[in-house]
Amino acid sequence: MFLHNVGIIFFVLNYVTVHCKPKNVLVLLGDDVGFESQIYDNKICKTPNLNKLASRSVVFNQAYTSVSSCSPSRSAILTGLPQHQNGMYGLHHSVHHFNSFDDVRSLPYLLQKAGIRTGIIGKKHVGPEYVYPFEFSQTEENHSILQIGRNITYMRHYLHKFLHNNDSRPFLMYIGFHDPHRCGHVHPEFGSFCEKFGNGEPGMGVIPDWKPVSYNTDDILVPYFIQNTEIAKQDIAAQYTTISRLDQGIGLMIKELELAGVLDDTLIIYSSDNGIPFPNGRTNLYDAGMAEPMLISSPSDTHRWGQKSEAMVNLVDIVPTVLEWFGLDYPTYKLNKQIVKLTGKSLLPILHEEPTSGWNSVYASHDLHEVTMYYPMRVLRKRQYKLIHNINYKMPFPIDQDFYLSPTFQDLLNRTRHKKNLNWTKSLKSYYYRPQWELYNIINDPQELKNLAYNKQFIDVLRSLKVELNQWQNITNDPWICAPGGVLEASGTYKYTPSCLPLDNDTEEQYDESEYTISVV
Ligand SMILES: *[C@@H]1O[C@H](CO)[C@@H](O)[C@H](O)[C@H]1NC(C)=O
Ligand SMILES: *[C@@H]1O[C@H](CO)[C@@H](O)[C@H](O)[C@H]1NC(C)=O
Ligand SMILES: *[C@@H]1O[C@H](CO)[C@@H](O)[C@H](O)[C@H]1NC(C)=O
Ligand SMILES: *[C@@H]1O[C@H](CO)[C@@H](O)[C@H](O)[C@H]1NC(C)=O
Ligand SMILES: *[C@@H]1O[C@H](CO)[C@@H](O)[C@H](O)[C@H]1NC(C)=O
Ligand SMILES: *[C@@H]1O[C@H](CO)[C@@H](O)[C@H](O)[C@H]1NC(C)=O
Ligand SMILES: *[C@@H]1O[C@H](CO)[C@@H](O)[C@H](O)[C@H]1NC(C)=O
Ligand SMILES: [Ca+2]
Predict the structure, then answer these.
(1) Are residues 342 and 403 in the same domain?
(2) Which residue has the CA at smallest separation from atom 4 of ligand 1?
(3) Domain range for 91
(4) How many CA atoms lie within 13 Å of 269's alpha carbon, on the beta-carbon side?
(5) Which residues belong to any copy of the Sulfatase N-terminal domain (predicted)?
(6) What is the pLDDT of residues 471-503, one digit of tens each?
């Protein structure tokens, strides 16, 4: 213990003498934002501030979340551990009440111990407090989430306060925008994406720093994974308007750094926690739910600014990246008696130079969203193939309360009830009932429509992906590693030989291809 502390003190002194200027990190996290930006070839949704950030960043074209659900993803971002390893199996707020395990060493915890200042403004949505301690904390825990997460003027005020308190320590500031999360389920008066909140119309209030941008539904480009209907287009137009508030908020926050004279000392990371709240998006691990925008702006690698990276990266890479930025090591410790190893890697080398090898696979892991929505999935995504394991495949895929009430989902329900053309690549039945294994050739079939898992030609591909996925589940101490065909025994007789013991008669699904054929309508 004593030696440990001396190490930290030595490190801090050393740090300050070697680097005369403190080096900081700013994380800008959108809530359910996707690729609605020119940076990612959307020509309609205007994001001038993100575009500007991109011009001083490396733009990641192959970034993925570890899980497409809010609290689980935020826990993975802040711990570097997948949700099944850090314990945040579902949403943290209200009745759901999920929390990470008490002994998890999160990024704010590690930084605070190393003498780095930590701050959070906006949506936190993880707990318990002692696992995720931020020194400066302005979150939904003691503010209205609309104010601290969507009112960019209100948020800017707190960033200003954080940056102007005469503290010269290097810092991590994590800004959790609540935009462009849906809001029709809790605040229908503000529109399906809270696109009217603060727009200056009667009863909506004003957000002084926001100039709302509205869109014509005729111009909307419907992504392949959403039904092409008028109602869906209106829903997407509302999402775009809310993205204008996120985009302007990002511009404001960066401006605050500049005014405080720390912009050129700060690593800026922009991404999203999960996929967009549309069918196949949030709570799914299809690419529509798993792929994320990601920009990283490093003041030390200006020669890479504006360039794109094709490295396959994951949000669990953020912890090793930030630790390396601050020159810190991840500690050696155990969780639930098992050694904890980070499976993510620092992205700093990519900010310096595009890698010529490696960075060819990412993993994802989902268990719940709301407490009632048990649907465990494990995924390996490589460049050509993607494997999805739907562990409890006989259950219908669950729908969350927020998405259920959305115009887009109501439209799918209504069209199904009235036996109308859905203008969608799936039927509700094929969406709800999924086979145990889904294998896609992403290069030939980027929309993930043709499942190859039960095609004999792909038996070797399937087998090798299953082995890789299983190894990752093993390294990350996944309690679900044996499911659904077996039971994991890891204590008593099995203490030194953790094993999957078979459940006879239930090991492999009997697959009826006709049930799962996805009809392109
Ligand atoms: C919220 O809590 C933090 C400490 O946890 C405190 O510094 C801050 O002033 C509080 N804000 C409000 C509005 O109560
Ligand atoms: C910071 O320091 C300056 C100069 O010493 C002083 O004028 C100012 O009031 C201080 N601000 C705070 C928030 O302590
Ligand atoms: C946003 O915050 C500012 C500053 O606190 C406040 O004046 C304004 O009324 C807020 N807007 C809304 C819509 O609540
Ligand atoms: C279905 O989509 C096509 C374009 O792909 C469009 O022309 C048509 O109007 C849509 N039908 C409905 C019912 O929205
Ligand atoms: C449901 O579908 C019917 C028949 O197409 C249509 O008349 C009605 O407006 C739809 N309702 C909603 C809420 O979309
Ligand atoms: C995990 O891997 C270790 C080392 O290869 C092996 O001994 C152990 O049985 C594996 N655990 C499971 C549950 O497969
Ligand atoms: C059930 O398990 C037994 C023992 O493994 C096996 O012989 C039998 O074929 C299985 N039956 C079915 C329907 O899978
Ligand atoms: Ca979210």
Answers:
(1) no
(2) 137
(3) 24-360
(4) 29
(5) 23-327
(6) 999 999 999 999 998 999 999 999 999 999 988
